[in-house]
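BUG: 3D viewer hangs when loading the predicted structure for this chain

Environment: internal workstation, default settings.
Expected: structure renders.
Actual: progress bar stalls at 90%.

Input used:
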Amino acid sequence: MSVAISFERAISPFTSPSQLRQATATFSLVGNLSDFPSGRLRARRSSARPCASGCRLARASSGSQRDPVPRLEPSDRRALSVPAAADRPALLVIHPGALGDVLQAVPALRALRPDGPVAFSGQPRLGGLLRGLGLVDAAMPFDGLGLEALFTREPAPSSLVARLTSFRRVISWFGARDELYPQRLRAIVRECVIAPPVPDDESPMTVWRHLLATTGATSPVDLAPLDLPEAWRDEASRVLVELGAAPMRSLLVVHPGAGGRRKIWPVENLARVIQHVIRDTGGQALIHQGPADLDVVDQLSGILEPGTLRLIEPDLPLLAAILDRASAYLGGDSGVSHLAAAVGAPAV
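C-alpha cells produced before the viewer hung:
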C-alpha cells in the first residue's frame, strides 16, 4: 500500500502559501507502509555538555573539545521590569499563554506600535524574546502582576491599582470568560480591552486575526518574518560549529515533540522522512530537544544514522536564530513549529 506522507502546518500568520508548497514538495515521500520500522526502538542517550548559551550540545561522534561559545547577551536576559516614571509605556498587553499562542499575537503587537511604547506581561522567557525582537519596549512577569486579586470581591491591593493605572490602556487576552475579572479591571482602567486569547469555536477567524481585531488597530497588517538581531545570528553560527554542523550542507531542523502525546507523529514515520531528505539532498539533520522531549528524541536518534546532531534545550533567541539558518523545518503542532514559521523557515 503506497501512501503520500505530508504534514499540515499549524495555522500561522507568517508562512506564505509558496513557502508551504516548497516545504511540502521537499518532504513529500511516497513509500510502502510495510517498510516502516517496527518493534522496540533502540534508545541511545548521547553524552551532552552545556554550551554557553544555556543549551546542551550532543553529538554521536567523538571529537576534541572546542572553546566554550561566548554567552549571548540579548535583551531577554535583562531584568524583566517596566521602566519607571516618564519612561513607562502607555500600553500594557497581558497574555500568559505559551510560545505558539504568543507568536500568534505578533501582528497585533506590530499594529499597536504606532500608539506608543508597549509593555508585555506574560511568561518571562517570552517577554524577553519579544523585547529582544523589538516588538515590545518592556516586559513584566505575569505571575508577579497580581491579577488574581481581580477574581475575588475583596478590595484590590493598592499596589495592583497603582501598577495598572500607570498605563493609559490595557489589553488583556486573559480572563474574558470570568464573571468578575472584566468588571473589576474596567473599574480600575478606564480604557481597556478584555478578550479571549482564541476566537469562539464557531468563528471562522484564525487566532492571529482574532487577536488583531480585538485591538481596534487600523495600521496595515504586517506579516513579515521576525527580524532577528545580528548577535543572535552570530551566536547560532558559533553553536552550529560547536555541534559539528557542516557549513556548506543544507540544514534540516526537526522537532519531534509536541504539547501533548496525541500530537506526536510516530518516530518511525518521522525517521523515514528525515532519511529520505538527507539521502536525496545530501543535507544534514539537527534534532531539537525541548524539556519534555527526551524520550521521543532518544527513540528517533536510535533509528537515525550515528552522528545526527542534537540541540538540547536552547534558549529562545538561540533557537530562533538556528531556525532562521535552517534550509527547512519539520515538526508537529508545537510552539517550536510556530517559531520556525515566524522566522521564515520553510516549515512543515
